[in-house]
Design goal:
Number of strands: 6
CATH topology: Nuclear Transport Factor 2, Chain: A
Strand order of the largest sheet: 2-1-6-5-4-3
Largest sheet: 6 strands, mixed
Radius of gyration: 19 Å
Distance between the termini: 78 Å
Structural class: alpha+beta
Number of helices: 4
Strand content: 35-45%
Shape: elongated
Length: 163
Amino acid sequence: MRNRRAWAGAGLALIARPLLARALLLKIRRDVRALNSGDIEPLLSGYAHDAVMRFNDGEHRWAGEHRGRDAIGRFLQSFVDAGLQGHVSELFVAGAPWRLTLIARFDDHARDPAGEVIYRNRTVLLARTRWGRIVLHEDFYEDTERIVALERRLSERETGPSG
């Protein structure tokens, strides 16, 4: 009897993990679609109040560490305001449900007012959760110089040709 319960538990674990990963991927994609439409709230609600987001250092508006949900909200709003659009293509999940580690492939791009692509990058996002909320989020970009180049273009657009 005990052996059967152990096998049943192992079988349930094997089935539950892929279902959890699939459900998380669907939720994250839905939240990113909302972000792409200008609504930061669905994605922001997934962060703990004391969460930390670390973005690569450099000469751009998103650089550094963003502590707390309010700071992360300002980061996400700046992402939207810059016209950035993203897509999550893959998600890997590890750990216990109350303490997950998520690794996602996130590609993003931006277009100028004429529709020309002015920025494109590939990213790996690492997130650690606690009881279903993100507590740590770190981004690792394929090419960080592309972010700096985008910052220059955005700054030029914001200040206009006269500076």
